[in-house]
Predict the 3D structure of the following.
Amino acid sequence: MADTARPRINFSKILNSPDILVAVAIVTIVIMFILPLPVFFLDFFMSISLALSLFVLFLVIFSTNPLDISIFPSMLLIMTLLRLGLNVSSTRLILSKGPQFNGKLITAFGQFVVGGNFIVGLIIFIILIAVQYIVISKGTTRMSEVAARFALDSLPGKQMMIDSDLAAGIITEQEAILRRKSLQREADFYGSMDGASKFVSGDVMVGIFITVVNIIGGILIGLLKFHMDFTQAMETFLIFTVGDGLVSQIPSLLNGVSAGIIVSRSEAADTLGNEFKKEATRSYYPLWILAATLTFFGFVPGFPWYVFLPLGGLFGYLAYSMQTSTKKKVEEKIEKKEEEKPVIIDKLVPIEPIALEIGYSLIPLVDKSQGGDLFERIANVRKQIAYDYGMIVPPIVVRDSLKLEATEYSIKIHGVKVASSKLYPDRLLAINPGVVSEEIEGIKIKEPTYNLDAVWIEPSQKDIAESFGYTVINCSTVIATHLTETIMNNVDSLLGREEVKKIIDSIRDEYKTLVSEVESVTNIGFLQKVFQNLLSEKISIRNIATILQTVADKLEINKNLDPDLVSEFVREKLKNQICRTYTDDKGRLRVYALSPKLENYLANEFEKSVRLGVYTFPPQFLPNFINKILEFEKEANEKKLDYFILLVSPRIRRQLKMILSSVAPRAVVLSTSEISPGVSLEYVGQISMGDQ
């Protein structure tokens, strides 16, 4: 029968697993508290404790960010546990063996410090303990508490900055996630350090207690068990006690220093040595003053001139070298500056395409800790416009401004204020869509986006207002809606050639032939105008293939076509998309039409304007015509139509929209050639004017 295979322990796998090694180390430390430890292993583990403390100190000195060694609090706990275990083991050996104790490390430290006089040794040891407890431990604990408090207090502001950068498009969503994780790790680290600093102070107190126990217990055991006289017992056990205390307290002192350094360097940009070098050599004046002071001390009677004069000379030499080096660098900078070309200010201080400025009372709208969601709304605005219209909205910069009133906001396009309004942060805005007759108590205003009647109401009135038919929104929604409409109203200035080129480049791989064909018959400027014409009337350019194909087809026939005319051809190709936008939930397209007589009159006048370059309408015609359009737009609102749509001939659609764009911007002007065959048309009314 074959032998049963015995399971083998894979030591190489254990050694390559840090988690297993840490678990074994902690179990070994716990065993130290229970079982006697041979002298050899006591020396070995005490050396390991000292080495670990030095290693951690060097890690801290050469680190540039506390999060580089974020496990420091855990390391501090394990090393403190190791020292306490060694203290228990060494105390057991010292008290049990007495004069026969032969721990090399403890004996060497004790004899070195005592130096033949155990009273002096005891005093020096007490001083070391005092330094560790009063200076290092208390200072580190206090710095940890302050650092933790400030880290938590600054958390909302830092989160707001991340949200601002995300909303402005400066960073991606993935980068924002990484920043938030780093911010959370930083807060957790300083919170852990606040607790870990208590390990340092607690370790010192335990060290003092163990030292006292060792001295008293050692003397008693020496007198009673080993029959030593008092002086001999005092001298023997004091050497062991001081040596044991030093072996345990020196690593503790190093850990306390490490904790103090890592907490005090939270905003460090470089290693400790490099930062010291940079800051100590900023100016040579302190070195000159130091050199003069040391030289003066060298001539004071009784002072060791052989110490102060060489030091004064050394620092004087350093000051002179630094002064010479600084002057040389300044001269090189001046020469380099003279060789530089004139600075172009426009390139150094660019104007943001879109900026939202808010008064200080509106800051809570962007502060997540106070429930603010404006940044999320702005990010959604950019996403929604990109999804609905195919336009890449430039980053939107949000900042507070002392030039505005406390509750005011303004929207700037290329540095020019194009829209503004005032808000009531503690209220909600109830908007009358035009069909509500009941009034509600509050502050009456005109809604800033569509100029509708609105009322600022108390939050407790929300249910009542909605039951009346009001549309109730909060301040963030007011700004987001106003921002969206402002962007679409200024699309011609926001959609530049660079943005158009990015759109074309994004589809180049997918539509190589089409893009190549378009580029052979036109340029970016022509496409920019076509895109602007479509977007200005809220027609999406996401169907980019159809748009480019139409442009290429028309320009192949006639390269001299006007981009405005080509835009009309594109609209005809997008008829299905356009009709789907304006049909109601029953699939109907409810429109107003011009009387045939009025339409023919406008067509003739528009043709004249093309030849002459100016409109030739009678003086009162345009004002009367515009008033008539506004009357029918009001009627459409009263009939609860979703849109006020004018259906006209293709001959007059473009010019009519140009006339109405400033006086009735919400009016939709469609041509009969833009109506999809499957759409159900319903004529709501006909517009006519006297003799025309």
Remarks:
- The mean pLDDT is 82.
- The chain has 26 helices and twelve strands.
